[in-house]
Amino acid sequence: MECDDTTESSCKLLKKVLDLVQEEHLVADADRSKKVVEFKHPRELQPLLALNIGQEGKSEEEVKKILEDVVKYSVRTGHPHFYNQLYAGIDEIGLAGAWLSTALNTNQYTFEVASVFSLVEHHVISTLVKLFGLKDGDGIFSPGGSMNNMYGMQLAKYRHFKDGKTEGIFGRKPMVALTSDQSHYSIKKAANWMGIGINNVVIVATDRFGRMIPQALKQAINVSKENGKEPFFVNATAGTTVFGSFDPIKEIADICEKEKLWLHVDACWGGTAILSKKHKHNLAGIERADSISWNPHKMLGAPLQCSALIVKHKGLLHECNSASATYLFQQDKFYDVSFDTGDKSFQCGRKVDAFKFYMFLTTHGLKELERRVDAAFSASLYLNKKLKSREGFRPVLEEPQCTNVCFWYIPPRLRKETESPEWWDEIAKIAPQLKERMITKGVMMVGYQPIPIKNLCNFIRMVNCCYPTATEEDMDFVLNTIDTLGKDL
User: 350 and 223 share a domain?
Assistant: First the structure.
């Protein structure tokens, strides 16, 4: 990298960032010998970072130290043993797309300022419409799945009651949104923000695998009507946060069609299965959805943030959300204003996230991404098989539906004890202690949680993403590490 005198300092800074990414293996070929995290408690970390903002800028050496400390104390999400969330690291292709789009620092709202990116988003959305089996459609990239779920609910409300855009929902029967007891909490947040009210989110029962029960949905709709309320929106989940469960979309779509209800599918996590011929059956019926939310930044490993909303009804996004700001969306511009897509968004400022995903898709190709998806599912099936045959491990579900593997670890002192309520109280304490040990040692990060509605105490939730690609050796490491850290608990 060559720099003239006036840009030498900034060039050195950019070079330092690149060097850190390469030297610390933050993308591609992550170093297994390094810790996943150099954990410090907040009050320990604060003085180490020496956070301060002064009147004068910092020296070159001070800035370099900031960058080094950021890397040193941050979680390495690209580490092979980061299994903590429904996302992991990115590869060099994703990073390149993110860097370039950030360097150009433009906004997605008009063709005027985002000519290339407007065409890219249009092309990617069209590709996703076909990928999910819709005959026609529209869409938008947003900051995340929670926002997409709110978009879906807002579109449903608008179609159900168009005057609500101008008159509000005052004086109407309470409107009801229905979702499963394993769905994402953003459905309740959306109901809050939109004035529907959290108490008008009706929770539908799931089976023992965490899948919405169609008959329970029918009953919930009928009860809502009997109580003088108006059902308008059903959220089905394709890959629930904890179990990775896939709701039966076909059966739910039949009910929604009969009742004239909007069907939204939250496929933020499990939607990645659409790329695999082997696993896309989990999404059977998704082409019948009115709206779909998918986060390629989750299982697939596209750069955060990368979240797409797909809508079956072309033009409805614009009709619902348009405010026709005359300083941005003038209709007498000298080019085709149909490419000024910002008015169909709730946001004004919007990042050009579609470009990062376009680079990711076009550089790798769908065949390579399918290989990664299949590898993630395969690793989870292997892990589940191994833990079922290993003393001290017990699966919560017999088989994983997605790449989520949920299980309890039972330390030796509890293995021959009677499984009383007190015994389960002891088991509930194990996962949090394991989590503390693995993080303080920095060897691994795995999540845990209870599900009170199903009377399940704290258990470990392991998730595999498509990148870094997990191996059978990695899955053996997970079980061995848990056993080593937990045998004296």
Answer: yes
**pLDDT reported for residue 130:** 98
**pLDDT single digits (tens) 58-97:** 999 999 999 999 999 999 999 999 999 999 999 999 999 9
Q: Is the pLDDT of residue 334 over 70?
A: yes
Q: By three-state DSSP, how is residue 437 classified?
A: helix
Q: Which helix (H) or strand (E) holds 142?
A: strand 138-142
Domain's final residue, options 297, 329, 364: 364
User: Residue 273: inside a domain, yes or no?
Assistant: yes
* CATH code of residue 253: 3.40.640.10
Q: Are 425 and 267 in contact (CB under 8 A)?
A: no
**Domains of the chain: total:** 3
Q: Residue 25 and residue 67: Cα distance in Å, rounded?
A: 15
Q: Verify that 386 and 359 share a domain, yes or no.
A: no
H or E segment to which residue 188 belongs: helix 186-193
435 in a domain, yes or no?
Answer: yes
Q: Is 11 exposed, middle or buried (0-12, 13-18, 19+ CB in 10 A)?
A: middle
Both 404 and 469 in a single domain?
A: yes
**Could you tell me if 342 and 108 are in contact, meaning their C-beta atoms sit under 8 angstroms apart?**
yes
pLDDT category, 102, cuts 50, 70, 90? Answer: very high
Provide the whole-model pTM. 0.95
All residues at 6 or more sequence positions from 99 whose CB lies less than 8 Å from its CB, including other chains: none
Tell me which residue range forms the domain holding 412.
Answer: 367-486
d(CA 11, CA 5): 10
For residue 447, what are the β-bridge partners? 461
Distance CA(301)–CA(12), nearest Å, equals 29
